[in-house]
Amino acid sequence: MTTLPYLRIQRLTKKFGAFTALDNISLEIAEGEFVCFLGPSGCGKTTLLRAIAGLDIQTRGRIEQAGRDISILPPTKRDFGIVFQSYALFPNLTAAKNVAYGLENTRAKRAEVAKRVRELLDLIGLGDHGGKYPAQLSGGQQQRVALARALATSPGLLLLDEPLSALDAKVRVYLRHEVKQLQRRLGVTTIMVTHDQEEALTMADRIVVMNHGAIEQIGTPLEIYREPASPFVADFIGVMNFVAGTVVRDGVVRLGRVELACEADGLTPGSEVTLAIRPEDILVQDVPGPGSQPNALRARVDALAFLGSFFRADLVGDALEGMLLRADLPVDLVRRLGIAEKTTMSFLLPRERIRVYPGSAIHR
Amino acid sequence: MRRPARRIGTLGDVVVLGALAAYAIPFFWQLLTSFKPEAELLRVPPLLPSRLTLAHYRVVIEQSLMPQALGNSLGVATLTTLLALVIGLPGAYAVARLPLPGKRLLLLAIVASTAFPQIATVSPLYLLMRALDLRDTWAGLVLVHTSFALPLTIWLLAGFIREVPIETEEAAAVDGAGLLGIFRWVVIPLLAPGLASTALLAFLFSWNEFLFAYTFTVSGASRTVPVALALFPGVFEVPWGDIAAASMLASVPPVLIVIVLQRFLVRGLVAGAVKE
User: What is the pTM of this model?
Assistant: First the structure.
């Protein structure tokens, strides 16, 4: 059985004067999916959300929702609820009236509206606060009222524009969980815009990483983290070592003085590449074995910083020819092996954990 | 570090109070004059009147143009304020929100138009009034006052509208409200403080305006308070006591309005000064 995508975006382009905010974006989202648009500010993620909402109509391209072409429909004619970054609650209306606003515009019966509002306020755990004005609610509560307002008309699509960014850290983490649970329970297709990678990684079924108005990569959080498609994605999400290397032959690159096996085919021998490896993927060669173990590297711990749940080690050495690798080492391992600054030892760069990108574009 | 700052604070308070008192002296002198018996008006000792009299007020109310002028002023200023807001609000909304071509230029032109000295436009406007047969009518004054109050109204309201988060309007639009619904249920409630201060400024402008009111009016049918005040002095004498009493009466309506609106005014006049 082939399921049609619930939302299909085809070759969407949005220009503001000479500036291209969205460049030929195509994307499909399945029903019930939780998708995050992730990227730095100015990458076009909010513009894309606003195009889907009909608040900023695209310059070119097509948007279909549930098989219906909604490309040029005004927001009212589309089927979605939205939570804005600033919540945009009506300050002159109580929480309950805020939630009821959209329902009243549908000319629903008064008793039905009241029932639905009560239901929604209970759903977000603010059943007793319906009579309060937004200014009398905390940031987290305002955010939840905005969520209830967005869900009031039971829309097929829920759009969240950085809904948690204005909250303090603790509330944010708590609400992440709440929003995700709620989305699961209601099964509403949801798109959330965020610049917070942790938010995207913990909440999304799929992440759309954007940069300069284009999609860099689409994938599950694990795929995005483990197999970043470009140096940009690798750098934007998590911590990544970038070092310069050269292609020796298929499947082998040279880093400093060592040759490393890696999964890279089809690159011209002798061409420059960028190698990327996550600090936590660098392993200590526990049992001193023969120095010729594949992908082993002798290096000296130049600095060792305790970061609570792990140690971050700066690795240098002759083999690295002045380059620096950061390795995250488990606390118990550091204690057990007595690793300290100036310790020299062997480290392993596992073959399947090394990413190879063509070109010597090392940023930072 | 706190002590010197506080001492400067206290000193500052004294200076401010002193300045306020200095500004208030003419007003209180006027108040005093309005209750002084005729004979003591132009003699300096005694500084304070030997007895208080309501004679000046009786003259003003019973024998002068003042009661009629107060009615005219209230009518003209109220209508001017309403008209300026009714026309100015949509105008300001358009300037603040809609993608108009040449918006900056338009706004600049609106502001620049306030730079025209009133005296330069009196003659052409007089001819216009005569042609339209609007001399000595409320309608004529309301039109002229509105046209002069509008630039400020639009300018101020556009600023206040820009401070209404556009997302709030979008949220209402998403929830199915039309443009008028958004205006009625979102923009106007959020704009209340701004509307109040703008209305007050328009009202005071019209209330205090003298030149046009003097030029375009002929009789008690439309003479406003400033004109009536100016007509008090006779050929042989200046009735200072009566003028003082009339001025006091002229101050009552604006002061009352400020008191009624003050809850909004403070919010409106400092809006945008600090990030909320």
Answer: 0.77
